[in-house]
Amino acid sequence: MFTDKKIIHLGYSGAGYDPSPAVMDAIMESLSKINSYPYEGYDELEGLIAEYCNVGRKNVMVTNGGDEAIGIITALYGSRVLIPAPTYGEYAYLARSRGAEIRFSNSMHGDTYEVSFSDEELGWASLVWICNPNNPTGTIVPRATITRVLENTKATVVVDEAYYEFSGTSVADLVGSHDNLIILRTFSKGFGIAGLRLGYILASSEVINRIRNAKQEFNVSRVARAAGIAAMKSRSYYSERVEEAKRVRDDFERHCNSIGITAFKSNAGFVFVKFRDMGEMEYVHSTLMSNGLVTFGPSDSEFSGLSGPYVRIALGSKNDMERAKSEISKAVADYWAEKGRSPENKMQLQEPPEAEG
Ligand code: PMP
Questions:
Q1: Are residues 328 and 191 in the same domain?
Q2: Same domain, yes or no, for 288 and 205?
Q3: Do the strands 310-314 and 270-274 form a parallel or antiparallel pair, or are they unpaired?
Q4: Which domain holds residue 100?
């Protein structure tokens, strides 16, 4: 990539804003004891998370990012893994690395992402993944779909709520009544500390104990633990930042739609865009890359089962997104000018399902 412009990473989706001042102070303070293991354990952090999620203290376990949880869950439950595609690539990547059998259930019907497993698929699986909201489409999986899956399979069902702070949608309240449910969350997105690697799972106390026995004793660092505790105590800071980020996201979606490329309605910290054809997508994606704007296209390993003229653009700061808007507009206009014709009318997306509380 050769450019004299500032490189902006809108590929991996972290947060387009800084951690709270309290989190930064806690990180700095934790460094004074960096020569010792985090031997005090994770009780305080897990207690704060339990309160945040409104679940019992025994229903929480912290992990080294959500990805650590995906690895342990796959090792314990994933001999036959059912994945609704397109979705987050780590489920298949870690299943494959452990020699699991994998089935992808095509969940993209035209322009609608809709999870609908057959009884046969649910009978076959030992582990089912549901990403809610889904990465990369940003779509909410309705609560009724999740309860139907939970009640029609003996498999362990993981609902990945990595983007919960953006969607406000959760099935955490079902943890008490469904022993086959695990919820996965992270501090990487709404709480903006992706670089520290902190996530957690919510599940029945039996499942939590089983997973606890399979993890490293000190899976979360002293620094990440301190940051997580401070983040749980700075929730109003974060909810304001998330609200601002959602406004920037919605403005970005409107911009895409106004220039004839189609943004899916996102419930997450990124925007999923469909171009008119593969030529336009490839031209814009590679032009953005050459100009220092990193985004994810369909062939990126971040996703499983994604094909077609799609690009996922993670939310950056307001300024980053202003630059992305103008670079995309210019690239789209240049592409059609080079082809010597104007683009056909933009495609209409079907309405995605309504978000639920
Ligand atoms: N789930 C989804 C849907 C994600 O997008 C990510 C991050 N890319 C994760 C889980 C894992 O997040 P982390 O390991 O940073 O906590």
A1: no
A2: no
A3: antiparallel
A4: 21-234
In a domain, 355, yes or no: no
User: Ligand 1: distance of its center to the CA of 67 in Å?
Assistant: 6
DSSP bridge pairs for 303: 88
CATH number of the domain at 71, please. Answer: 3.40.640.10
Find out whether 82 and 128 touch, Cβ atoms under 8 Å.
yes
Could you tell me if residue 48 is left (phi over 0), alpha (psi between -120 and 50 degrees) or otherwise beta? alpha
Which of 113, 134, 135 to probe ligand 1 with, by most ligand atoms within 8 A of CB?
A: 135
Asked whether 135 lines ligand 1 (CB < 6 A), one says yes
Q: pLDDT tens digit string along 11-40?
A: 987 788 999 999 999 999 999 999 999 999
Please state whether the predicted TM-score (pTM) of the whole model is above 0.85: yes
What's the pLDDT tens digit per position in 67-80? 999 999 999 999 99
Instruction: State the Cα–Cα distance between residues 354 and 268, nearest whole angstrom.
Output: 14
Ligand 1 lined by 67 (C-beta under 6 Å)? yes
Q: 290 near 283, Cβ under 8 Å?
A: no
